[in-house]
Amino acid sequence: MNKQAEQYFFDLLSLKLSGDASESQLAEISTILQANPSLQFLYDQMIEPVYCEKEATSIADQAYATHYVKMQLAGKFESINDNIFEPEVEKSPSFSKRKFALIGIAACVFTVLFINYSLLLDKSVIKQNNNAFVNEIITKRGSKSSIKLPDGTIVRLNTDSRLTYLNFAAGKTREVTLVGEAYFDVAHDSSRPFIIHTGKINIKVLGTSFNVRNYPQDKELETSLIKGKIEVSLESRPEDIITLKPTEKLIIAKEQDELPAPTKVKTSNEIKVVLTSITYLRHDSLVAETSWLNDKLVFVNQPLEKIAIELERKYAINITFKEEKVKKYRYTGVFENVSLEKVFQLIKYSKNINYKIDDKNIVIE
Amino acid sequence: MKLSSQELLYHQSKVAYYRNEQSYKCLFLFFHPTLYRFALNILHDKSVSEEIVSDIMLKVWEMGNKLSQIQYLKIFLITSVKNACFTYLSSKKHQQSLSESIDNEDISTNEDNPEQLFIYSEVTQRVNLVIASLPMKCQMVFRLIKEEGLSYKEVSKVLEISQNTIETHMRIALRKIRMDLQHFLK
After folding, report:
1. Residues of A in contact with B127 (CB under 8 A)
2. Range A82-116+295-365 classified under CATH 3.55.50.30
3. What is the second-level CATH architecture of the domain A118-291?
4. Helical residues (DSSP H) of chain B, grouped into ranges
5. pTM score of the predicted model
């Protein structure tokens, strides 16, 4: 193959890579390749993508978390938050029909309303006690927070939660205590395991992403693993270790009573443990357990009683039921950036329920 | 994150006119990989690259309604990152250490992460080495076309060079890679 012909092939290949090549030029490439098999190796190498898409996405996600905090601190994002019933900006209706999955509440398509979510750093209280080097981050009801710990671990704290940690630099392990719900993206460091205390269980990790849910009001404690590996042990029996693989979810009953239908049940020192898998929704592989990160509320066959607790947390309200049987009504659906009023309208559509909204108190009749 | 050109325009005007944070996030996630890689290839410094991309994206938010007047957001962003990188280099008088750092440093894409090392085959790594050894301009042209899939027209706007020059750069790069691969096969 002479130099000119080679150069011509390079020109064609460049055009293909840039997306500028025409049909006939693409055909020419295949002809040349057939005549000169020695070029095939180069061609294959060039066509292959160099970057791992997944990795780039995770870097971008982390970067956004950092960027978000920066924007918040610079006061760029609007932060009217004390009142979630703030006037909403209506989106154009053409956009409303895309993003969502709804099974139970029939086909109610929301016009997605834009609420300034209260993911606010300044709303969460950061205390630092210098003597003991204890750091404490608290989110109130209705607000969320994203924190980067000194070791690079990113924690997204859901509403009404508390995270405390000792000064990492001092110890050989990185230990935090969690009450409430949080998503951890733990920075990899095999020499210093990351341990999360929740009272009932301890979770030990090396570097991974997962969700922990430990609200005092809930009957169960949950942890869902998105990637990596975590080891869970009971506070009362530290030698008994349960290892979770990605997409697995562990549910631990705080008291001895009803648990969801189990796949595997272990009774360990009078504590019921269920190992199950995380819940995927039909569309766009949305994981129910971590949906709160994207400001979505996801319910899969949940009784209204449980949904009410979630709504109380997210919108910082109080919900009371006048009738017992209403509590047992089950719903499935996804709420994305919708106002509280809209949520109740939808709940009302499917069953004949009346409700009264009086500032932050809601009565369901 | 993948967005069609229509979706891009939609998010762009959403940010421009409604200051929609969700759309802003989409734009950020969509452009970050390209911009970050581009900056990293010039600067060879992860944290500075990260900061430059973040600064540029902050400007996007600050532009307000003017954002809607930008016809090709991608070109605008890559050009901004390029300018910011060179401003950084000249202000820090990094020019000297730059050539050193290229010689000393391994390819920035495969660092300490064993998983990553596993993903990239030996050949790919070789190719990366060759690309990293190319002259700066040539490398930028090649990466934008091969790795980010920019068209000739886009590259010529971003780097302010003619399409002929792009062609020449591509030939040089491809010939070098081919020679290296042939050597590898023997």
Report:
1. 45, 50
2. yes
3. Sandwich (2.60)
4. 5-18, 21-43, 46-62, 73-91, 95-104, 114-119, 122-133, 136-146, 152-159, 163-185
5. 0.46
